[in-house]
Amino acid sequence: MKPYPEAYIDYLLYFHAQRDYFECHEVMEEFWKEHPGDARSRTYVALIQIAVGMYHIRRGNRTGAVKMLQSAGRNAEAPHVLSLGLNPDKLQELLNQVWSSIEQDEFLYEDINLPITDPELIDFCLKECDRRGLIWQSPSLMEDEHLIQKHTRRDRSEVINERARQQQIRKEKGGAR
């Protein structure tokens, strides 16, 4: 198996086995922040946005979901998506399909699976699921309020402060929004 970041493997397990999109977001965001010069930086952001989009969909925030999934599609750079063992064309197709069905009000929530093409990566994830007592591609537990509402219960003060700081910087540069 190609060497993949451990955080990425954790992301895949949260995404496909636990369906804990909040933890997907957290683990990839932490990794992304710790590796600012990584060539795959934009693609890591895309993975974060896919997870955020999924937890927005699951909670019924259609506008937020569409925004995140469209942005993920722009950030998912094909060579880097491929280097993470995913099919870039199928990923774009999946993202487009989900956000367009939401916009057309035709989407009923359903977990998605990322198009993993590396058989060794799939095998590793299956073995890791077995080791952890998880089931690969299990469905979301929609009755688990803790899972569904997890991101709304976290301390957002750091995020809010950073947004305010960035807004102040833009304002000082004359580009306030």
UniProtKB/TrEMBL annotation:
In this chain, the stretch annotated as Disordered covers 153-177
InterPro entries linked: DUF309 (IPR005500), TTHA0068_sf (IPR023203)
Q: Where is the composition biased (Basic and acidic residues)?
A: 155-177
Question: Could you tell me which Pfam families the record lists for this protein?
Answer: DUF309 (PF03745)
Name the record gives this protein = DUF309 domain-containing protein
Protein's organism: Paenibacillus phytorum
